[in-house]
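queue> holo job accepted (beta-D-glucopyranose)
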Amino acid sequence: MPIRRSWPCAALALVVALTLPVPADAGTSGRVAELVRQMTVDEKLSLLHGGTNPHGIGESGYLPGVPRLGVPPVLLADGAQGIRVNAPSTALPAPVALASSFDPALAAQYGQVIGRDGRGAGIDVLLGPTVGTIRVPFGGRNFESFSEDPLVSARTVAADVRGIQSQGLIATVKHYAENNQETQRDGIDVKVGEQELHEIELPGFQAAVDAGAGAVMCSYNKLNGTQACQNSELLQGILREQLRFDGWVMSDWHATHATDSITHGLDQEMPDDKYLGDSLKKAVRDGTIPMSAVDTSVTRILTVFDRFGLLNGTRPAPVKNPAADERVATKVAEDGAVLLRNTENTLPLKGSNSIAVIGPTGQTPKISGGGSAKGNPPHAIAPVDAIRARAGGTVTYTPGGDLFGQPIPPSAFDPPLPVAADGTVSLPLYYGYNGKIIAPSDGDYRISVSTGGNQIAELFVDGRNAFAGTAGLGDAEIPIHLTKGPHDFAVAPILGPDPGTVKLGWVTPEESASLIPAAVAAAKQADTAVVFAYDDESEGLDRGSTSLIGYQNDLISAVAKANPNTVVVLNTGSAVAMPWLDSVRSVLDMWYPGQNGAEATAALLFGDASPGGHLTQTFPASDSQTPVAGDPSRFPGVNGQVDYAEGIQVGYRWYDANHATPLFPFGFGITYTSFSYRDLVARRDGRGGLDVSVTVRNTGSRAGDAVPQVYLGPSPNVSEPQAVRALAGYDKITLRPGESRRVHIQVGADQLRHWNTTTNGWALGTGARTVYLGSSSADLPLHTTVDVR
Ligand code: BGC
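queue> job finished
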């Protein structure tokens, strides 16, 4: 049986030079109407589904256009954190790092980099950003999302979309909607209530629509029983009528399931034509689907193309600016980094101290998470080299762990696989190898695959899969706990030469354990140990636990025992458990920090830059503390269905409602200085919202960034569930030592509303509302009351 699968994200950069006839200028709607009138049925249908780029696989999606009428071919590429084509392009820090900066102005710059790079690579439509809610810490795509909180998601995505589109690149906001987990992502049925949908998940999409996003990508999952890409309530009732979206809806890759989806609000099938190609043509011919439905979708698509100048060649010329891109990448990595712990002023590091850098990602930079958001960076240096360049004292490096591992011996496969001594093996395209891998003992493994040349391969181990290869995919690793004995194993080249060559490696528990003693010895010799720890968050796979993968907890504990002056740098995409927290001095969460992450990490460690990021998601004390713990019907789902029974109590709202103290609360982040807050005043602002003012003072001895956060208590007059406190506004300011500033934080009228489930509409939460102010959801020293009528 071949394991042929259509890989959704194939890429090979190809800049297509477009010389196109310009239609007579008839004004936007006139021009589009005239084009639609002139198009044949086949030409119309060619816009409603993906096609094959005759110049090769250059990107994730392709439309041939209608060149005879001046509609150019259109290239679509992924790029939630940097454009994903074969040619190198700026790899920005993960979107979760961007959101952690709590800085919409920086999000606009981030979007501009993606827009500039995308247009520079000849791309017309970006498949991003990802704005869905971080519902559980295990979500495989948390790193490419923004937050568990709708306001942070909304403000970040709005600025990101504006930045992207300012460069002439069309943004596609995804994945609409409630695609918050990867387990059974192809069709899991999400049972969600109206209130959660409107108050928690949709504000990010609404903000993107308000910012002018040209396209929306409907998601793989079902929503309350109906596939998202044929869900009239979602696509028409909510998206078009309520959110006032006037762009086009494309399906996620292979998320279209029926031809009549076009009558339920879907405009375009991606990446091929299974339902909206010949089947649609036949349905139109048979009269089961009206031609007007086709014309409506074509008009929507062409209207966005026209808005972006695709139809008359008025698009701004793409101008690459790698130096400016690098500055933004570095700034986001620095400003999004969250300092979680810093005792005894261990950080910033003192210049002359000796440092033992430990951990495989101290050498091989962890740039991004996996899947379609993974970019193709032009370069990236090793964190240990960046530390060496900055340090005054001796710097040693000891791996303490392995990423790719050792070649897997032929004897570990049943039936045997003729793997060469270096781990390479030649396999037929698509068919590859299907068999068993025999684990020699119980423990945490890391199974890896890499390819050479223009080849993509897919690896499966016990139902988990990962892609390796070109287009920035690099090596693929599956971290997995295996019991001694046989486990399902399959690997196949799925694109490129036939047969294809893949290289297989594994890190066994024995190898991991054997690497710890050298790290301990190095730590003993140094003034400070800096341990880099990582996880492998990726599309296609949820994390099984918040625990760091492999033997990293053992490594950190052993190092901290050998040298109490231990600093942990996290390169992780979401919340992780820290059983060793009390034994280390400092923890700096760098997320996946992009191509300039090493330089940013060194700048923060040595105090050339100040950490000022705050968590956009709660870090639970343990896996058993999360809102979904102990109830598989809530996550990852039972019988193909997942129940969002927590309603609006997502993230910190749930912890507050349940009086649960997490490891680190939402909004948390410390700095190298300290701040005080006083004189809180909250007033109605005449626009239906609030003007909240407070005096913030830098009480420490270094400059630093403060993020004053406003939370709003419930209305006494609302019968629907409400949050104990909900984030309603925030600002980010930089203060010099001793400096004070009066800060005005605008709370929008929408923050005072809730979703009324009787009237199915927004309603003002009237009465005395408490306004809280502080530096995190759990540290709110000031409060006052406003009367809302
Ligand atoms: C992902 C999308 C992505 C698409 C194209 C899908 O599998 O879910 O986010 O844009 O592939 O690569």
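queue> Residues 8-9, 60, 78, 127, 174, 252-253, 372 surround beta-D-glucopyranose (CB under 6 Å).
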